[in-house]
Every structure is written in structure tokens, then in C-alpha cells.
Amino acid sequence: MAKLLHPKATAVWLVDNTTLSFKQIADFTDMHELEIQGIADGDVAMGVKGFDPIANNQLEQAQIDAAEADPMVKLKVKPNKAAEGEDTRRGPRYTPLSKRQDRPASILWLVKFHPELADAQISKLVGTTKPTIQAIRERTHWNISNIQPIDPVALGLCKQSELDAAVQKAAAKKAAAGEVMTDDERRKLVSTEQSLGMDPEPKIPSQIEGLETFTLSGEDSDDEDEKSDSDYADAESFFKQPAGGGDDDDSSRD
């Protein structure tokens, strides 16, 4: 399917030069209907110059006329043979200049927490080169002492769904090779959707935190109960002085 060039500018032109409904323009430009209403009210795309889709061979006047006469008619972008196959083109991921300095941190995070990922997978996720990944794996990178591992999803270098897919693919490949994974490795292979669907782990009330290993021995408690019952069976035994206590008092008086 052909893609529209400058959709917001095209929406501005259609709002200013046609009587199309907001929904028709929104469907054609792949925008929200409220955004089109905002353009008409002057709250959105202020200062954006309209882009004529007819002069730029993206739309025909006959289509606009038919859509103005019937609100149910949908506009379609004219196919461009020069743009065919653009969606399926494969190549390295483009990383904006503002985020390229964060790639080493994301590579270190992937190497540390997902060692099952291959260099090709990491390169595809964050848009880097294999020599850079190898240098960080071997800790020979020139700035390795200052690099802190940061999640590439948090940095905006890839999507969580892409990371989950790469991890699941690496896990399947590892299982097919017959390698045994540890429990920690299995936990790392859980996707975000699976982790969100899990039951929450029971938490210890804050009042008894730190007492998880505190236990009472039944034998000791029984012995103490028997001792207390035998020693203080009646009031006289409770107030009775220790043996030899009277002699000590008499000697102290002398």
C-alpha cells in the first residue's frame, strides 16, 4: 500500500481547499478525527503550509469530487511504482543522533541480562555493529569503565515486543541445540505479557519483616513451662528464701 507524503500538511490543504468531512480526511491521512478538527479550528498544525496532493500526484481531483458528493466514499493514495518494495526493504536500524551515545549502555545491558542473544540480534535491536558488540562483550571497549547497563526499551532504541521476540527466538534456538538452561535464565525468557499475567507473589506484612527465620523451639518452651509449674506450685514456695540465705544474713549482722 502506498504511503502518503507529509500527511499533516496534506490534511491542512484538504481542510482549506475542500469540503470533505473530518472522517474522510482523517482516514486518508491516517490521523485522528479530532486532530483534523483541531486543524480546522486552528489549534493544531499552526504555521504548517498546506501540501497539495493533486499537484504532487498523490490524489486526483475526480476522487475529491466524488468524496465531496458522498461522505461514505474513501480517498485512496495513487500507487507510486518508484516506492514499491520500500516496506520490505531490510537494512540496519536507523538510530537518531541524539540516542547514538546511549547504544553502548544498551548493548552492555543486553549482553549482561540476555547472554543468549546473538550479535546479529543485538545489532538489529539497537542498530549497532558487531565489532562494537564484541568489544563490549570482551570489555575492551575504550569507554567500558564509564558504561552503565541501561534497558534499550527505556532508552527508546527498540520496542518491548521486539526485545521479547528476539529473546524467545534465542531461547527456542538454544533449546533446539539441547542446551540446559538454569532457573535464572528461564525467568529472563518470560515476555512482558506473560509476566503481567502472572499472579502476584505474596508479600510479608511490614510489621513482621525481618522475622522470617525466627522460630520457637517446642521442646524449650515445654521445659520452661514444666520448670515454672514445679518451682512455683504455691505461694509459700514463691516467697521462700534460697537455702542458706538466713545464715548469710546473720553473718552479715555479726
Automatic annotation (TrEMBL):
Residues 219-234 have a biased composition (Acidic residues). It comes from the Bacteria. Residues 79-99, 191-254 are annotated as: Disordered. Residues 81-90 have a biased composition (Basic and acidic residues). InterPro entries: TrcR. This is DUF1013 domain-containing protein. It comes from Sulfitobacter albidus.
